[in-house]
Write a structure and sequence with these properties.
The structure holds 2 protein chains of 2 kinds.
Chain A lengths: L17 H6 L15 E7 L5 E7 L1 H5 L3 E5 L25 E2 L5 E7 L2 H8 L3 E6 L6 H7 L7 E5 L2 H7 L2 E9 L11 E6 L5 E5 L4 H12 L6 E5 L14 H14 L3 E4 L2 H7 L6 E9 L5 E11 L7 H10 L9 E9 L14 H19 L3 H8 L20 H11 L2 H14 L3 E14 L8 E8 L5 E5 L8 H13 L6 E3 L2 E2 L14 H28 L6 E4 L2 E4 L2 E4 H10 L5 E7 L4 E3 L4 E3 L3 E14 L5 E10 L7 H20 L30 E6 L25 H12 L16 H15 L5
Parallel strand pairs in A: 1-12, 10-11, 14-15, 18-19, 28-29
Antiparallel strand pairs in A: 1-5, 2-4, 2-6, 3-5, 7-15, 8-13, 9-10, 9-12, 11-20, 13-14, 16-27, 17-18, 17-24, 21-22, 22-23, 25-26, 27-28
Helix pairs in contact in A: 6-7, 9-10, 10-11, 14-15, 18-19
Chain B lengths: L2 E6 L2 E6 L6 H8 L18 E4 L2 E4 L12 E3 L12 H8 L9 H14 L5 H7 L11 H21 L1
Parallel strand pairs in B: 1-5
Antiparallel strand pairs in B: 1-2, 3-4, 3-5
Classes of the chains: A alpha+beta, B alpha+beta.
The structure holds FE2/S2 (inorganic) cluster (2 copies).
Chain lengths: 774, 161
């Protein structure tokens, strides 16, 4: 008998769908064979960013060839609202007023997609324009926020700033980001009997979709089932923003009695769905001559778009991460979630956290330049202590700090100091090309800050032939959640992983689930699945013990079998016998993250169960004539605790890093003065491609760092934290640019560091270095 | 409506199409070959790459009628007798995929590259893949998979000599 099962935890397994992906057999929503009589849905959109709706004449739309139905707000049997946070500010279809260019006005269902699109174009809509609000200063002046101001403070920041030997202030902007999941939004609704509807949807949050669809249709949740087998990428973009398309498909199915599919094309997807929040940050820092930070005050204002969506918690998470790895003796942070006439900004990998970390690193850069120190030394000088100086701005003590050893190891393995000297010397001999190097750390808090979301359920069946079916509330978007959870169950029941089949996430199997988000997918669902497997294991153990007249302790679980009183029984046989002995072979499992709590009003609590850490060292070359850059080498050391699956985790680190690099260096969203998004296709919005990947890319997972908390097999979450490793690229570019003025002036490069921005920074440094106006 | 016929994955197929029907629509909607994905609808992402007469083509760039009489291979036709093509096997083994949406197009592009350049450098692989976007993997394992497949295939070619 083999002494190790195939596919247990900590094993580098390929993705469970890998074989299907390479053969084209994996089924996405758009690949499901359409039921007979399926209608295709297109959504008519507002052409204006802010206007009163004077008249909407849809007669021509209704008369167009192939049109089956045209639906507006008046056709909604339930509530015309999709706000996931109960802000009641997100109508399915606009009434009286439009709030952004691209807002849904009506839906057309036709026999073909082309017919639906053509018909929608025939709508006559009259608008009375209102001035669009497109910046945070205007919104703040008008007091128009989508969510109340959030604050965190510790100590007395104003007094400490006044006292500090050195003091600096500045403003920075951080750009947003389009998710650009390769599979656009799609939903297929199939009507059933008694007003039921089954919606196949590319969504990270089936349970919320179910709740909102039910609300829109005016039926109880039990009449709606949402299912998602996999998504072709999501990154947060399908947490709440998939709901509109699911609800519209369901509405059409209900109104026509026919299955209805709504698939967006790329341009519509980019115009109609939310993005990463951009931020304007005003910061002030007080520090001493050695670079130790005494006080920090920061105001974060973001353009949240027309509705609240998740902007409250996103802005909060920016504050939660405005310390990154640094102890601020005195600190005062505030966020201002501003309403703007743009598409509602939403969740995106990191959920506001990355913007907080970018701001923290800007502050470090300011201090380093003011004192002529290596930024890495300033970073290290301000790291949270292990037992003292470890209180965050939200009063959670950091108990699992490993950033000191992690950064030291990376500093050594990346050969940071020697390369820095070599690069400085090289730059002195190079006229147009300049190289830069930076090493930046990341600390990221794990848990939903909305405490209630930190729960998960699973459902496990063992069939009479010994095969196992598992369902849990997490959704698969490529991150390898299904394979990790299957590994957990395989380990628990000591069976090979091929015995376990995971089925599509479905609200009728596991109810009331949370979004697969906040990097928490395997932490939560792994624990829930383990609990279900444990229940089965306990029942089988009790059965085997009773039959052999042994104690439960005498039953030993071995790979593929158990041993009791010297007798070995194969798992199949055990299950078979248990069935005939009428032992229940189906179980649910549940998990709620312990220890966490958070009060927004008081700005105090323990919102995070634990932290994940990492660091990256990046080297770039900048062409000072064009502002273009190239990333030459990246070294990463990242902490995932004891990895459930190192192959999957490495993929998350690599992919997250490149996505972060895209955000900070090349991806630029651009709205015109009328509030129309002008970058709505890959032709105008550039995400990283294969040649942007650094030629030297050394990625390692930190070893010997089990999670201090009893998470699933002592692993750590990995989805979001690696994105912030790319901040090292931004700072490497800054370092290269700073060489223009011999590292005496801070480049203050605001991301995205596009060639224009880099060139502008170079020009500014040149002008001030030669004594011109700064 | 014009009718077209072509050979897809070794099978003679035909059907009535509108003259504006794209090859990708014909493959997906009429033939049910949904392994060829649509990511951008505008010839930029590479999710829809198939082979037409041996060369990689973005199937959203070509009309179905333009492919009349051609030999078309899609991701579903790449494996032979249940044996994965070495590029498919390498993508699986080297984790060259996460969500998998870009994977069929990536593989079809890579197979075309290796037909013309059996031993590409890493830089050549990356340059070749510029028309194929991936949002998940950061390309690291994709490039690794293609390099491994190239080594594997030229090893086999040598062994057969
Ligand atoms: S769908 Fe053909 S290239 Fe994107
Ligand atoms: S694996 Fe998701 S886009 Fe490439």
């Amino acid at each position: 008998m083999s002494e190790r099962i195939v596919g247990g935890v900590h094993e580098a397994r390929v993705h469970d769908s890998a074989h299907k992906h390479v053969t084209g057999a994996a089924v996405y929503v758009d690949d499901i064979p359409e039921p007979a009589r399926t209608v295709q849905v297109h959504i008519g959109q507002s052409a204006r960013a802010h206007a009163r709706l004077v008249r909407m004449d849809l007669d021509a739309v209704r008369r167009a060839p192939g049109v089956v139905a045209v639906l507006t707000a008046a056709d909604i049997p339930g509530v015309n609202d999709l706000s996931a946070v109960h802000a009641h500010d997100e109508p399915v279809f606009a009434v009286d007023k439009v709030m952004f260019a691209g807002q849904a006005l009506f839906a057309v269902a036709a026999e073909t997609r082309l017919q639906a699109r053509r018909a929608a174009a025939l709508a006559v809509v009259e608008y009375a324009d209102l001035p669009p609000v497109l910046d945070t200063d205007t919104a703040r002046a008008a007091g128009d926020l989508v969510w109340p101001i959030g604050r965190m403070q510790r100590g007395d920041a104003p007094a400490a700033l006044a006292r500090a030997p050195r003091r600096l202030q500045g403003r920075m902007t951080i750009g947003g980001q389009e998710h650009f999941y390769l599979e656009g939004m799609v939903a297929l609704a199939v009507p059933g009997e008694d007003g039921d509807v089954l919606v196949h949807c590319s969504t990270q949050h089936p349970s919320e979709g179910q709740l909102l669809i039910a609300q829109v249709l005016g039926v109880p949740s039990h009449a709606v089932t949402v299912e998602c087998r996999r998504m072709g990428g999501a990154f947060g973009g399908k947490e709440t923003h998939a709901n509109l398309f699911a609800a519209v498909a369901a509405l059409v199915a209900r109104a026509t009695g026919r299955p209805a599919k709504c698939r967006l094309d790329r341009d519509d997807d980019m115009i109609m769905t939310g993005k990463r929040h951009d931020f304007t940050i005003d910061y002030e820092v007080g520090f001493d001559e050695t670079g130790v930070i005494k006080a920090v005050a920061m105001d974060f204002a973001s353009r949240c778009g027309w509705s609240a969506d998740l902007s409250g918690p996103v802005n909060d998470r920016a504050l939660f991460h405005a310390d990154n790895c640094y102890f601020y003796e005195n600190v005062r942070l505030a966020c201002f979630p501003c309403r703007t006439n743009m598409v509602s900004a939403t969740a995106f990998r990191g959920f506001g956290g990355p913007q907080g970390v970018v701001a923290a690193e800007r502050v470090i850069e300011e201090v380093a330049f003011a004192l002529g120190l290596d930024p890495l030394d300033v970073r290290k000088r301000n790291f949270y202590g292990r037992a003292e100086r470890n209180l965050t701005p939200y009063h959670q003590a950091i108990e699992d700090n490993i950033i000191h050893e992690l950064v030291e190891e990376l500093e050594r393995t990346s050969n940071y100091r020697a390369r820095r000297d070599e690069i400085r010397a090289w730059n002195r001999t190079s006229r147009w090309q300049r190289r830069g190097l930076a090493l930046t750390p990341v600390k990221f808090g794990i848990s939903f800050t909305m405490t209630a979301y930190n729960q998960a359920g699973a459902l496990l069946h063992v069939y009479r032939d010994g095969s196992i079916q598992l369902n849990h509330g997490g959704t698969e978007m490529g991150q390898g959640l299904y394979v990790k959870v299957a590994q957990v169950v395989a380990e628990e029941l000591q069976v090979d992983i091929d015995r376990i089949r995971l089925t599509a996430t479905n609200t009728s199997k596991v109810p009331n689930t949370s979004a697969t988000a906040a990097s928490s997918g395997s932490d939560l669902n792994g624990m829930a699945a383990q609990a279900a497997a444990r229940t089965i294991k306990e029942r089988l153990t009790a059965f085997a013990a009773a039959r052999a007249q042994a104690s439960a302790e005498e039953v030993v679980w071995l790979p593929g079998r158990i041993r009791v009183k010297g007798e070995e029984i194969l798992f199949d046989k055990l299950v078979h016998d248990a069935y005939f002995a009428r032992i229940q072979l189906s179980a649910t499992g549940f998990y709620a993250t312990p220890k966490i709590h958070w009060s927004r009003e008081e700005g105090r609590g323990r919102p995070f169960y634990y932290y994940a850490y990492g660091a990256a060292c990046s080297e770039v070359t900048v062409d000072t004539l064009t502002g273009e850059h190239r990333v030459d080498r990246v070294d990463i050391l990242h902490d995932v605790g004891r990895s459930l699956n190192p192959a999957i985790d490495l993929g998350q680190v690599e992919g997250g890093f490149i996505q972060g690099m895209g955000w900070l260096t090349m991806e630029e969203l651009w709205w015109d003065a009328d509030g129309r998004l002008r970058t709505h296709a890959p032709s105008t919005y550039k995400i990283p491609c294969a040649s942007d990947r650094p030629p030297v890319f050394n990625v390692r997972l930190m070893e010997g760092v089990a999670n201090r908390e009893p998470t699933i097999h002592r692993s750590k979450a990995v989805g979001e934290p690696p994105l912030m490793l790319a901040i090292s690229v931004l700072h490497a570019i800054s370092d290269a640019v700073a060489s223009i003025a011999d590292h005496k002036l801070p480049p203050r490069l605001d991301p995205p560091a596009t060639p224009e921005k880099v060139l502008a920074a170079i020009e500014r440094l040149r002008a001030s270095d030669s004594g011109g106006a700064p | 409506m014009p009718s077209v016929s072509m050979t897809v994955n070794g099978k003679q197929v035909g059907g009535e199409v509108e003259s504006r029907t794209l090859l990708v629509e014909f493959l997906r909607n009429q033939l049910g070959l949904t392994g060829t994905h649509v990511g951008c609808d505008t010839s930029q992402c590479g999710c829809c790459v198939v082979h037409v007469d041996g060369r990689s083509v973005k199937a959203c760039t070509m009309l179905a009628v333009q492919a009349a009489g051609s030999q078309v291979t899609t991701i579903e036709g790449l494996a032979r007798n249940g044996q994965l093509h070495p590029v498919q096997a390498a993508f699986r083994e080297h984790h060259g995929l996460q969500c998998g949406f870009c994977t069929p197009g990536m593989i079809m592009s890579a197979v075309d590259l290796l037909q013309h350049n059996a031993n590409p450098t890493e830089a050549e692989v990356r340059e070749w893949l510029e028309g194929n976007l991936c949002r998940c993997t950061g390309y690291h394992n994709i490039v690794k998979a293609i390099m491994a497949a190239a080594a594997d295939m030229s090893g086999h070619a040598k062994a057969a000599e």
